[in-house]
Specification:
Metalloprtase-TldD/E_cen_dom; protease; 452 residues; PmbA/TldD fold; Metalloprtase-TldD/E_C; Metalloprotease PmbA; 6-stranded antiparallel sheet
Length: 452
């Protein structure tokens, strides 16, 4: 890994400048008669490199910025945005938002989040670790990772590419309640995708490492070797017969199951009555030993924040406790539509922690005995309205607790409400590259469509 040299840090000056612009935008809104207004400003910078077989394909430096503004005239709402932070452009954007609001229909649920819910403890959570990585150094990291993967096994003769990225973002949210909150964060990653085999027998697989701080990344050679192991393991897949089998989802696949649950308890789906978990607060949705907790204030958490996208203070809170759904995920608009209160989830959910009742993947394979280990999912086959679930899958066939051969071109299917309750084990092998902290998940039985 390249020496971890900190970048020069102008983030606080940038946040102060954005805060000043936010105040000016809100003053312009008030001067035009808006009863309420809110504005979000951001500045993002990044460096990304992509190469293949050691040859550089792209080097890209990005500098993006933007302003998103919403004004309210009573219960009428107008929104506008711009990427130009010059005074004239900001004034024109305010004019556009106000003009839109004057022609919209009143909506009783519109308006800012309640003033008493605004965050007052605006802490940081160790999300800022800039990296002074120049293009040559980033290229060298990607080349090291790719070279290690290509050298790991003679069956790997080709690469689908390697990439390295470093970036940072500062943002400010402010509204006419007098709330102003500033945030800053960094993001770094390194990835490799390799190809093994020849002709029709070729297989592709990848690995990546990511983190908020450069020291959280795996070494380039380790990334390449892991990509190589995963790629070679997929060679020579064999079919399995269609049937119902235990299915073990690897951690990076298991978090998609949590994503389907979150989608079904999100405010937008609920007030539109488009969720299979409508009216399920207080009812079992997962096994009785399973809990799901939101932890917005974790140090160096990938989604840590003192406030949500509306300025509402975030708090540690159960989403599911002992299998029972405790609450929905609501911003102020969806909460009002449902006659409830915001849960501080405008803009999405924060860090999630799940219950583990098993060790790592090896133990869970032994516990499963015979069945399917899923390491890749394809398609978007989850219906939040009905709970119907059907996705393309590939992975490995397991017998007597041991992986025996790879499998692909499968379809797994069921109903999410049944799948969630059929979870038998969750491993402690948590994939830390996501804000959803969950390990491998064993589902007792799912339909697997393979060979006729």
């Amino acid at each position: 890994m390249h020496a971890l040299t900190p970048a020069s840090d102008d983030s606080r000056e940038r946040m102060d400048r954005l805060s000043g612009l936010a105040g000016e935008v809100l003053r312009l809104c008030a001067a035009r008669g808006a009863s309420q207004a809110e504005v979000a400003l951001n500045e993002d910078r990044g460096l990304s490199v992509n190469l293949r077989m050691g040859e550089v394909e792209t080097v890209e430096r990005t500098r993006d910025r933007g302003v998103a503004l919403t004004v309210y005239f009573g219960q009428r709402k107008g929104s506008a945005s711009t990427a130009d932070l010059q005074p004239g452009s900001l004034e024109a954007t305010v004019e556009q938002a106000c003009a839109i609001a004057r022609f919209t229909e009143p909506d009783p649920a519109s308006g800012l989040a309640d003033a008493h819910r605004m965050a007052t403890d605006l802490r940081e959570f160790d999300s800022w670790s800039p990296w002074a990585l120049d293009a040559d150094q980033a290229i060298a990291l990607a080349q090291q990772a790719e070279a290690a993967g290509l050298a790991a096994d003679p069956r790997i003769a080709n690469s689908d590419g390697a990439s390295a990225y470093t970036g940072d973002s500062v943002s400010v949210y402010a509204n006419s309640h007098g709330f102003t909150g500033a945030e800053r964060g960094t993001s770094h990653s390194l990835s490799v995708s390799l190809i093994a085999g020849r002709g029709d027998a070729m297989q592709r697989e990848y690995w990546y490492t990511s983190g908020l701080a450069p020291e959280d990344l795996e070494a380039p050679a380790a990334v390449g070797r892991r990509a190589a192991e995963r790629t070679v393991a997929r060679l020579d897949p064999r079919p399995i017969r269609t049937g119902e089998y235990p299915v073990l989802f690897a951690p990076e696949m298991a978090r998609s199951l949590v994503g389907h649950l979150l989608g079904a308890i999100s405010g937008g789906a609920l007030y539109r009555r488009a969720s299979f978990l409508l009216d399920h607060v207080g009812k079992p949705v997962l096994p009785s030993w399973f809990s799901l907790v939101e932890r917005p204030h974790l140090k160096r958490g990938l989604r840590s924040a003192a406030f949500d996208a509306e300025g509402v203070a975030t708090v540690d809170s159960d989403v599911v406790r002992d299998g029972v759904l405790q609450r929905y995920l609501l911003g102020s608009y969806s909460a009002r539509k449902l006659g409830l209160e915001s849960t501080g989830n405008a803009g999405g959910v924060h860090n999630l922690e799940t219950t583990a009742n098993a060790a790592g993947l090896d133990e869970m394979l032994r516990g499963m005995g015979t069945g399917l280990l899923v390491t890749e999912l394809m398609g978007q086959g989850a219906n939040t309205v009905t709970g119907d679930y059907s996705r393309g899958a590939s992975g490995f066939w397991v017998e007597n607790g041991e992986i025996v051969h790879p499998v692909d071109e499968l379809t797994i299917a069921g109903r999410l409400q049944d799948l969630f309750l059929a979870i038998e084990a969750v491993g402690a092998d948590v994939d830390r590259r996501s804000h959803v902290g969950i390990g491998s998940v064993l589902v007792g039985r799912l339909m697997v469509a393979g060979e006729a």
